Amino acid sequence: MKEKGITKIEALIIGLLALIIIMGNIFFISYLNSKARDIQVLSEVKQIRDGLEVFLLTNNFYPEAKDPMVLNDVYLGTEKLCLSGFKKLSDFCDKNILTPIPNQYFNQGNRYYYKSADDNKNYQIEFELKTNFKRQGLFKGVNCATNLGINSQPCF
User: Fold this and answer.
1) Domains in the chain: how many in total?
2) Cα–Cα distance measured from residue 140 to residue 105, given in angstroms and rounded to the nearest whole number
3) 156 in any annotated domain
């Protein structure tokens, strides 16, 4: 009489299937984390753009930055946006527009680069996405937000 049990080949097949399922889940979770990060980045870019519009309504121009500068940087003094421009968090503001400038993933290497253009009548914000947003026309890599919209291309 033949004993019932799992043969070595059956155990190997079960082990390989379990490994494939686990690896698939790891990649899927990693993708979802990247997508969630990108949704946060797009939300923050929108907040920054809205803050710049408030600045424009008060001053009739955007904050001056002839060269690209990192936003929310303690050394550059771009941690917050006031009616008088970008400032350090410790500096006095007549009125705060964005305090601090949003960047949840700053410590993980995320950077928003700001530059004014056309005598401060326009601006560019360069940012990076880790995934595609095909319906919005945004793709993985460097993207550019301006006062006219967001394009899937570098600003500078």
Assistant:
1) 1
2) 17
3) no
Q: In this structure, are residues 82 and 59 in contact, taking their beta carbons and an 8 Å threshold?
A: no
**Which residues face 7 on adjacent strands?**
none
Whether residue 2 is contained in a domain is answered as no
* Band of pLDDT at residue 140, cut at 50, 70 and 90: very high
Range of the domain at 57: 8-151
Sequence length of the chain is: 156
Residue with tokens 């004993």: 3
Q: Is 1 a domain residue?
A: no
| Tokens describing residue 144 | 């550019």
pTM given for the model:
0.86
Which pairs from 74-78 meet CB under 8 Å and 24+ separation?
78/114
Residue 113 has pLDDT above 90, yes or no: yes
Give 18-66 pLDDT, tens digit per residue.
999 999 999 999 899 999 999 999 999 999 999 999 999 999 999 999 9
Q: Is residue 3 part of a domain?
A: no
Q: Is 85:98 a contact under the CB 8 Å cutoff?
A: no
